[in-house]
Amino acid sequence: MQVDISESRILIVDDTKSNIDLLVSLLGSSYRLSVALDGNSALIQARENNPDLILLDIMMPIMNGFEVCKILKSDPLTSSIPIIFITALDDTEFITKGFKLGAVDYITKPFRIPELRARVHTHLSLRHAMLAYANQNRILESRVKERTKELRDTQLEIIYRLSRAAEYRDNQTGLHIKRLSHLCRILASACGCDDKTADVIFNASPMHDIGKIGIPDSILLKPGPLDAEEWKIMQTHTTIGAEILSGHDSLLIKMGEMIALTHHEKWDGSGYPQGLAGLDIPLAGRIVAICDVFDALTSKRPYKDAWGPNDAFDEINAGRAASFDPRLVDCFLNCRSDLIEIVRSLNSAGQKSCAF
Ligand SMILES: [Fe+2]
Ligand SMILES: [Fe+2]
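A: This is the predicted complex of the input protein with fe (ii) ion.
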């Protein structure tokens, strides 16, 4: 972006009127000037008008230029405004102090006019370059954020759609995994997970049954009960799912792998595939176990009607200690109304009639 430096605003601070008149005569035709005759009004003007440059006299009564500079540099509103000290004192100690306080330059009186103009011009150019750079950075940052979100949304959508594909043979609506995600997030938050963890569980839980892709139709879609051999094969959907998702470092995929492997483990150790018990079962697996059963109970299946929410909550409660982590069951029952509400809203969006 091309910046017109003549549009720059310069604040001149000096208690001697003749000095101000001189500076105005030298710079007034090139820039937009404002003046302050003391430190206090300089501070007020700097805050209100945000000038591009301040020419600051050092020797002033009440508040000298060093004090003004100190206050300006400590205020986030004015700290980035470049300050050039104007002083009759060609004194190394004073100049050093000015630089230490954050001044960008100094000009000594009497002015050498071309030098004054050149320095003012240089610092204004620098100021505009820095503003443009900061602005460009802001634009880039917001673009990167936008793109990162787009990418992340696409990743989540792919996960959801692949999970749907895996469920498609025995559940074509895709509503089960959608409801499960929401139920899991509510339970995760209720049992003390932070928002980030609850979100990861929300996004990973659709992958819990991804291993069903490896189960033959004759077993997955069998209308009657499975015999022992078939049941053994059916159980491998956990290890197949974990295998499909293994070997990737992303937190989300790792969580998906863990959930796929452990969502059929039971609190008393009677679950599968590893027979883990109690707190050996990862938290996400224990969360999904409860929500998966709850959703299965409240959904209509070819072999059963959908249960009403109260019966399903009773069943979950009855499974405490045997199937489910008792603490999580308490948390689950404590958020009954939130759980019912989310299932209702998802079902009505999916136009599914159910017992809710
Ligand atoms: Fe499963
Ligand atoms: Fe499921």
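Strands lie at 9-13, 32-36, 53-57, 83-87, 105-108. Residues 208-209, 237, 263-264 surround fe (ii) ion (ligand 1) (CB under 6 Å).
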